[in-house]
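Pipeline run #58 for the internal structure catalog. This entry was flagged by the ingest filter as a single-chain record with no existing model, so it goes straight to prediction. Upstream metadata was stripped on purpose; only the residue string is passed forward. Reviewer on rotation: M.T. Logging verbosity set to normal.
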Amino acid sequence: MQGGGRMTAYERLSAARAKGRPTAQQYIAHIFTDFIELHGDRVFADDAAVIGGIASLCGRPVTVIGLEKGIETKEKVRRNFGAAQPEGYRKALRLMKQAEKFGRPVVCLVDTAGAYCGLGAEERGQGRAIALNLMEMMALKVPMISILIGEGGSGGALALAVADQVWMLENAVYSVISPEGAASIIWKDASKVEQACENLKITADELKAFGVVERVFREPEGDFAPLYEELRQALDASFQETLGWPVEKLLDHRYDRFRKFGGVSE
């Protein structure tokens, strides 16, 4: 599969945000079969920015959860441009716990600029909802893989990315803050977004070098069908291995994965 050549971090960010880029629902449709969407957090509402349910992966039942930006303008508005609210993260956690109960592996598809920061979301416990996901995912007793397919923005993305492995597409980005936000804070000038992109180290290859992600998938030009097939096979191969692990080994592996972040070798 052909890579995209040497691109700057800002160009990667622009590609991650590009109009027409496949969204979570397209990955679900092309990688999985027999998808049944499940709705609601059983507390407040159904958040359209988070789609999730049960599907089949190469004949194996799995739970799939995605942060969905939408495709056309009306749908983008309905899905809040992929900015999930507390009920979205609670829905995701409900589906994860259901997967744990029935022994299904979990696949998360991440594409969001960040969690919604509106007044209503804060009043309904946005911070707590994200924190609870982080805590529960660390101890979830089934295999999990998260794939960054576009933007991975701050805690809104991390709430679906505490997994055994995190994979990225080559033009996806993953950052603690948006480059525009970083530029505004550090230089008091949002126009310095390109400089912020370089300094934040947000690209897939940089993050793989740091050990933050395990795999980077090259993107084909035009038709994404070869990528969907590559991801299907990679997911199936990974779950064939990890579904045979004892729970203790699975949890220890996940714990060790995150404990090594930020380590400095002498």
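catalog note: The chain has a mean pLDDT of 93.
catalog note: The two ends are 37 Å apart (CA to CA).
status: ready for reviewer M.T.
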